[in-house]
Amino acid sequence: MSGKWQKHDLGFLGGRRLRRSRMAGWSRDLVRENALTPADLIWPIFVIEGQNERQPVKTMPRVSRLSIDLAVEAAKAARAEGITALALFPNTDPAKRSEGGEEALNRDNLVCRALSAIKDAVPEIGLIADVALDPYTSHGHDGVMAGEEILNDETVEILTRQALVQARSGADVVAPSDMMDGRVGAIRAVLDEEGFEKTIILSYAAKYASAFYGPFREAVGSGARLKGSKLTYQMDPANAEDALREVEQDLAEGADWVMVKPGMPYLDICRLVKDSFDVPVFAYQVSGEYAMISIAAEAGAVDRDAAMAESLMAFKRAGCSGVLTYFALDMARKLNG
Ligand code: PBG
Question: Measured between alpha carbons, how far is 325 from 201 in angstroms, rounded to an integer?
Fold first, then answer.
């Protein structure tokens, strides 16, 4: 025979052609392994003081900090699209930031007022409050400091009271994002003692010391303040086994759900945690990931909608129950046609 291609050369396929299932839309729909719905989406919202205030976040195209009245409107829009929950982050007045982050415990602070306003107006949407001191400290760290050190046990003591204040204001879920040891157990104990045994704890269990938090820190106003790095409490990006230890410990202390953060660079960790423990796993597609996609789209490098949808489906494929994403409203709208 000449070097010409012959049909029978493909005999080794044994008749198996994986492309058959991909040939038509209906068959692709039929064999699809994972689905993304608006119910998988949690929308992080930045809140500020004022009335009818909307401040764009420079490095996050289409994301703005909202005053509480506008956050309530956002919550209504989110609910109308089937989004299940919001995660609220305050940008605290610089005058109210301090070494010890005391404003975190003020029952009338910005995030507490936002929680109760949204709970009143849109009771059907889940409300997640972040437990950590960085929006309240003058140094931008998640805990209190002595010299260069972030103190663990002293911080945990404050975080338990912060979580309680948030639960009292209407948070359905408290989400410790601080990475102190022992905080989940301490928070669970205090919530239970005070009659909040129904409040869910979503632990940021595997939270890495990441370069992808930059835009968030600008949004909450902690970035320029931050002294040093968070390497002594957040996880080393080189580690996977350490994530399993973190998750195991948080579950033993009473976490209901666990989170991996950031998202896209840590999909292997999502899958590892999902395969290792029988609990709902969430991922946070963080601000830097949002910025990468959005700014690349603005530059004409990728299609925003397609990249958004593909990146979010990846979390379902990696075993996540849901994902925190700044794309939540846009994605839900797209899913709903
Ligand atoms: C801090 C906190 C951070 C984020 C959520 N909670 C930043 C940090 O750890 O410095 C980042 C979220 C994002 O980048 O979108 N408690």
Answer: 19
pLDDT digits (tens, 9 = 90+) for 9-56: 777 788 889 999 999 999 999 999 999 999 999 999 999 999 999 999
Quote the ligand 1 centre to 235 CA distance (angstroms).
13
Residue 3's pLDDT is 60
Residue 172: alpha-carbon gap to chain centroid:
15
Distance of alpha carbon 274 from alpha carbon 196, whole angstroms: 27
Cα separation, 321 vs 257, whole angstroms:
10
CATH number of the domain at 231, please: 3.20.20.70
pTM over 0.90: yes
What's the average model confidence in pLDDT over 66-90?
98
Q: Ligand 1: residues whose CB is within 6 Å?
A: 130, 132, 134, 142, 177-178, 213, 216-217, 230, 286-287
Residue 105: which residues within 8 A CB-CB, separation 6 or more?
A: 158, 161, 162, 165
Annotation marks residue 207 as catalytic: yes
Q: Identify whether 278 is part of a domain.
A: yes
* Segments forming the whole domain that contains residue 103: 36-335
How many domains does the chain contain in total?
1
